[in-house]
Amino acid sequence: MDPIQLLVLALVQGITEFLPISSSAHLILVPVITGWQDQGLAFDIAVHLGTLLAVVGYFRARVARLVVAGIKAPFTRERDADGRLAWLLVLATIPVGLAGLLFKDVVETTLRGPLVIAAASIGFGLLLWWSDRGGGGTRDEDSLDWRDALFIGLFQAIALIPGTSRSGITMTAALLLRLDRVAAARFSFLLSIPVIVLSGLLQVYDLIAAGDASGLGRPRVRDAVRGPRGLGVHPSVPALHRAPGYDAIRCLSGRARRGPDPRVRVLGGRPRRDWT
Questions:
Q1: What mean pLDDT do residues 82-101 have?
Q2: Please, are residues 245 and 18 in contact by the beta-carbon 8 Å criterion?
Q3: Which among 36, 73, 112, 171 could bridge 83 via Cys, Cβ 3.0 to 4.6 Å?
Q4: Which candidate, 191, 93, 97, places its Cα nearest to that of 141?
Q5: Whole-angstrom Cα distance, residue 119 to residue 31?
Q6: Rounded to an integer, what distance in angstroms lies between the CA atom of residue 182 and that of residue 188?
Q7: Residues contacting 163, CB < 8 A, separation 6+
């Protein structure tokens, strides 16, 4: 892969992944506009790793608490908010996991056209605006129950349609449930972690299967992921993706806290302590 193409695609993915605009749509449209070849599975795996590093790094304290509490929850009778939230995140991930397995071929072929991307971007963008028109509700993520988590999870499955932002559609669902903007954005970001892990594992499986099917074998697949041999993905791709992804989370967190006033500068500065 050409270094300029690598840099542009990594930055595009990093910036768009956590903002309420579709990162998958941008990764489809950039090669169409520029005439570049498709980036391939190895690149997708690399940017998913960068995405994971960004969100886990930003929410590292909260993620650590959720993991520990989630593991303890089945073995204790004490009600713990973090343990409960951890399992609600798992529940909310199930719909998109099942939908991805069932409709993977359709999503990767029939729905990858520019018209689908345009219609989904406009339609679900308007839906996000409509759900946020009142400024959100008063609930936080600790008030969610299993029905709420499943509702958000079903909305998240819609994000398989290219042009539909995963963060945008899950924040839309959360706002419809009357979560406030900060809680809606925070739950959406935390929900991205299991989804990214599952998606990355599926892509690794596809890459290995493709390598074995063509007679390349596992060493060839390993080289493709490591780069610069094979599919040509350089090890710096996750790092290139992590920085803009981290800044995108910080930008949207500031936007959620301060409201929609366009005069407010949301870039820069440290996030508030209670955000994570």
A1: 94
A2: yes
A3: 73
A4: 191
A5: 19
A6: 10
A7: 22, 24, 25, 116, 117, 118, 119, 120, 121, 124
